[in-house]
Amino acid sequence: MDLLVLTVSWWLVGFSGAMMPGPVMTLVITESARRGFIAGPLVTIGHVLLELAMVIALIFGLDNLLKQDTVAGAIGLIGGVFLLWMGYTIAKSAWRGQVSLNLAQRGEGARAGTHPIIAGVLMSISNPYWLLWWATVGSASLITFRAFGLPGLIAFYFGHTLADWVWNLFVAFVVASGRRALSDRVYRGILIACGLFLIALSVYFVNSGIHFLRG
Known about the structure:
The chain is mainly α. It has one domain (about 5-215). It is built from eleven helices and no strands. The protein has helices spanning about 5-20, 25-35, 40-60, 60-65, 70-95, 100-105, 110, 115-125, 130-145, 150-175, 185-215. The protein is flat. The termini are far apart.
């Protein structure tokens, strides 16, 4: 298969992961509502930097480690606990009225908490299915691209991350564009919904982690 055709196909596959609701998309929504459009690129930078590290690690055989049930189970438990904490913190702050669009627009909210780039890394690595996706679909696709040498590896990475950039920036633009029309009540409602979603996701991840550990 031609490298260009392969790259475009891989880019489309990338959307299957980028468009699925999960920790990173939730982070893009909450941060864009608070900080504006700039949050989208910042979160994505953290996410794609971690994916660069993942591609390099896969080249050196990390996929064999990630496919082990014990490792997958541990990742599920640790990631689930982190998402539980993150979801609880977001929902609690919104419920208690500790977050406000007025604070965010003055810059006070933007300075609070974890920087979006760091948050993008943490939310990505806390998702066990992100790791398992790379250990299976990602590593299998990498074999095909490696046949093209260095150009193939470059196309593999940028073909996939381009989907993340396109989707996350689109979501950030939509959220940030409607930010001025949001009241604090609606804003906090969005945060509570996102927080509860992360909590539900954490329960699913912890349960999956236990399932892997039990074999």
